[in-house]
Design goal:
Elements (H helix, E strand, L loop, with lengths): L10 H4 L38 H18 L5 H14 L10 H11 L9
């Protein structure tokens, strides 16, 4: 069989026994962009942030606890966004802080909890 050198412009070009229908007029699935469809309620930017293994394990455990308690499916990203939003709404002067430990202490103090010697 001879190798085709150009892309067929109609279905009839690809198979001469079929009636001529332009390829663009043929129904086909609607194409969408790569990845999951956007489901964010406001503009968002994807960010990659390294987390400690213990944090990932804890996030996964929380998602499983929520699912077993009431059947709701909550993803890690939703928990992380909620934690960031809580930090932003906590009314803490973040500009006065110098480190991750300072942010943690300020947030726990705002929540009325101590650090309890955890890392």
């Amino acid at each position: 069989m001879a190798k085709r050198t150009t892309k067929p412009r109609t279905v009839a070009d690809a198979n001469p026994r079929l009636p001529p229908i332009p390829v663009s007029a043929s129904p086909g699935p609607e194409r969408r962009g790569r990845g999951r469809p956007a489901m964010m309620p406001e503009p968002a930017t994807k960010a990659t942030v390294p987390l400690y293994d213990r944090q990932i394990i804890a996030l996964d455990q929380v998602t499983l606890d929520i699912r077993s308690a009431n059947g709701a499916i909550v993803h890690r990203a939703e928990l992380i966004r909620a934690a960031v939003e809580a930090l932003l709404r906590a009314g803490i002067d973040l500009a006065a802080l110098h480190s991750e430990a300072d942010v943690l202490d300020a947030l726990l103090a705002r929540m009325g909890q101590g650090r309890e010697g955890k890392p």
